Amino acid sequence: MHGLGNDFIVIDNKNNRINDEEAANLARKLCDRKFAVGADGILFLSKSKVADVRMRVFNSDGSEAEMCGNGIRCFAKYCYENKVVRKTELTVETLAGIEETWLTVEKQLVNSVKVDMGLPALERSAIPMPGTGKCLDEELQVDDDKYRISCLSMGNPHCVVFVDEVVSFPVTSIGPKIETNPLFPNKTNVEFVQVLNRGEVKVRVWERGCGETLACGTGACASVVAGKLLNRLDSTVVVHLLGGNLEIEYADHVLMTGPAERVYKGKLFRGIGK
Hints:
This protein is of the alpha+beta class. It folds into 2 domains: about 1-120, Diaminopimelate Epimerase, Chain A, domain 1, CATH 3.10.310; about 125-250, Diaminopimelate Epimerase, Chain A, domain 1 (Roll). The protein is built from 4 helices and 17 strands. The protein has a 17-stranded mixed β-sheet that branches. About 45% of the residues are buried.
């Protein structure tokens, strides 16, 4: 499945047949685009005692992520269309907490999903980062260059960098250097943001554990939150990502609305990839 080109393998693991070690190994093997299925990550569906369903996210490098905005839209669509949860409002347990989703359904197919992404965490300790207070529009030295960064957590860590022009910006060289900077003990996702006007931005994302992806839901949310806090953006913003557009609203909570698509389905036989 994919959300704006950010693609995932979705595996039903309600029977807990796949343990944590196997999940990480499967992610590393199956997400390889040259030798396997290919994806940015794997979404594992399991039962939950506190929500309708539980989603676990494993990146292509085998690390587990707290939350994924594009992934949860795909996950909600999967659950509805496969009759795991047959309702248009469902709750999803993640490592970042319980997320609420609302599905727009036509002819039994999910066209779009709105997700309540909750409140951003701005304190350094919650991102996490060393020190106290917030990190908004602070200077970060990367090699010989200096960048202004704003950091927050949307259930997972983000570092937002506003740039004059994002298309030609060297995301693939600067992104990994910020991702692994000692400021971020758990590493970080990095968003490079060009403001078009107060209601519209272009964003490229370097995702922790994945590299540059065509879209990142939590990254789009983090970009809008940072822009609003720095008085660069209004409360409702269209985010143009390489894979398409998301609408982000930031008032009491952060709301994200966007599409999700199923590419194909199949069966994975035990022993594949060993």
